[in-house]
Write a structure and sequence with these properties.
The chain has four helices and nine strands. The chain has helices at about 40-65, 65-70, 85-95, 145-150, and strands spanning about 1-5, 15-20, 25, 95-100, 105, 115-125, 130-140, 155-160, 165-169.
Length: about 170
């Protein structure tokens, strides 16, 4: 079995990093006054970062004079027309960049987070050594050569895992 999982590698400046379950997490989570943050799962961290990215986009749009001239939405009336500001808001989100609980979050032209990194683990079993897990390689979305080499199209996503893990046959 081959496993592709998302990793959170160490930052170059080790004085501002924090480790949990052998994964680097934002130094914001290391503050002892914020102990409840230590128990958050990775999916919750991404949810927090997504809301932070959206709030950042709204803030930037509110600074834009054109944004104020758009008609407001009224969701109660049945004759409500589509909101014309949607595409503009999407572009603002895609151009955004924040540092959240999972690290830096921004988007490439294809819509993926450019700072996401993955590692490929291979498992084997032998009667002599038992079950063995080896790290085959790691790659990020920034390296397009790695994307071409690694085909993970036929993988099944397992949302119940603590980290984003996909298994491939």
């Amino acid at each position: 079995m081959t496993v592709v999982r998302q990793i959170f590698p160490l930052w170059r400046d080790s004085s501002v990093s924090c480790m949990r379950n052998n994964h680097r997490i934002s130094s914001l989570l290391c503050d002892p006054q914020e102990g409840y943050l230590q128990s958050l799962e990775v999916s919750n961290l991404y949810l927090y970062d997504s809301v932070l990215m959206l709030a950042n986009a709204f803030y930037r749009k509110l600074e834009d004079r054109k944004w104020h001239s758009m008609a407001s939405l009224n969701c109660i009336r049945k004759s409500t027309k589509p909101w014309n500001g949607g595409w503009s808001m999407l572009e603002t989100i895609q151009k955004g960049r924040i540092t959240g609980l999972t690290g830096i979050m921004d988007f490439m032209d294809n819509g993926s987070n450019s700072h996401v990194q993955f590692e490929i683990l291979g498992t084997s079993f032998s009667e002599t050594f038992g079950k063995d897990i080896k790290r085959s390689t790691s790659f990020s979305l920034l390296s397009s050569a790695a994307q071409e080499e690694i085909n993970v199209a036929n993988c099944n996503f397992h949302p119940a895992m603590e980290t984003n893990v996909e298994t491939c046959c």
